[in-house]
Write a structure and sequence with these properties.
heterodimer, A: about 190 residues, mainly alpha, 10 helices
């Protein structure tokens, strides 16, 4: 089976106006970009507009692209800039900015259950997933985007640092802060069962 | 941090601090092995690791919708339109089964670095800017491509 061309190889073909290469890049990355911007801005309509604009910018930049960074990192940097601009244009919305809850302790009984369980078998209920989804939406933007980039776009710490434009250490601390908040939600739900 | 060098009773705080990176596969192999060793012996850290992994699993299972399929067609149409308007000068020649495509834009070429060479001279003298030169084999694969960005850049 023929090996799929890399993103960077497709970008080189784009420089010669190959729309097929552009289509291949879109098909490969559309879902990750769309989910990232939808979760950043909170609505599907704006998310589609931003996804369209993001890929159009890739097309327009085809002659100037230099593969100094991985294509995906560059693509998400564009998507992020567009999403942040869209958020700025909106009237301010209430964002949860309170200090994270202190880490609640885990009861010995729950610790016993979790220590024995297969992690993939712990959360079978959609109810907790919905609660986690809501908790992610309520995270401050800088924590929220790190969770989305990590868990949904499956980026490494290094990639996230490049996209967000901060040191890897900041990515780690933001991810940890976000997970502590989600942990509190999950623990509350699990303890009640 | 060298997990393997820590006594079990002192390890928990360091292991808990490293759990995010362990779950995300971001620890180096030595530290990852140290965390795994500790987890096999420590029930409370094992429970925290299980919770962290379960949360990550739950978040990844959340629906990830697709954009409207019509968006793909819209983008392609816009790209094709853009490609047409930018093709101010495109030349295609063939030599020994290899197709050579040169794309020009109006305006003189700028050579930012390096000396002009025989390959650059024609573009410099004609008042056109050679944006891209690509050699395509008979099977459609790119054999060689040069793209001008800031100066000239050899891609392959």
């Amino acid at each position: 089976m023929a090996e799929e061309p890399s993103d960077e190889a497709l970008m080189r073909r784009l420089a010669c106006d190959e729309t097929a290469a552009f289509d291949a890049l879109y098909v490969r990355h559309r879902r990750a970009v769309f989910n990232y911007v939808v979760r950043m801005v909170g609505d599907v309509g704006t998310g589609e507009d931003l996804t369209q604009e993001c890929f159009l910018r890739v097309w327009r930049a085809r002659c100037h692209y230099q593969p100094t960074a991985a294509f995906r990192t560059w693509l998400f940097t564009i998507a992020r800039r567009l999403a942040l601009d869209a958020l700025k244009r909106r009237s301010p919305v209430a964002v949860l900015t309170a200090d994270p809850k202190a880490d609640p302790p885990m009861t010995p009984e729950l610790a016993e259950r979790l220590a024995r369980a297969d992690p993939e078998a712990i959360f079978l209920g959609r109810e907790l997933e919905r609660q986690l989804e809501r908790a992610i939406q309520e995270l401050p933007q800088e924590l929220h985007e790190i969770v989305v980039l990590r868990e949904m776009a499956e980026m490494s710490y290094e990639e996230m640092a490049r996209v967000v434009g901060c040191p890897v250490g900041t990515v780690k601390s933001r991810l940890n802060a976000a997970r502590r908040r989600l942990r509190a939600v999950a623990l509350e739900w699990l303890e009640a069962r | 941090m060298k997990m393997s060098q820590m006594a079990p009773s002192n390890e928990c705080p360091s292991v808990l601090a490293a759990l995010d990176a362990w779950v995300d596969g971001e620890l180096d192999p030595t530290d990852a092995a140290g965390v795994a060793r500790h987890l096999s012996a420590c029930r409370s850290c094992r429970a925290e690791a299980a919770l962290l992994r379960a949360m990550a699993h739950s978040v990844r299972r959340m629906p990830q919708p697709e954009p409207d399929p019509a968006l793909r067609a819209r983008l392609l149409a816009q790209a094709r339109e853009g490609a047409t308007t930018r093709r101010l000068g495109i030349e295609q020649t063939e030599r020994e089964g290899v197709s050579i495509v040169r794309r020009y834009e109006t305006g003189p070429a700028r050579v930012v670095s390096g000396e002009p060479t025989a390959a650059r001279e024609p573009a410099l003298s004609t008042g056109r800017s050679l944006i891209c030169q690509r050699q395509v084999g008979a099977d459609g694969t790119t054999l060689h491509q040069v793209v001008q960005t800031k100066g000239w850049r050899e891609w392959r």
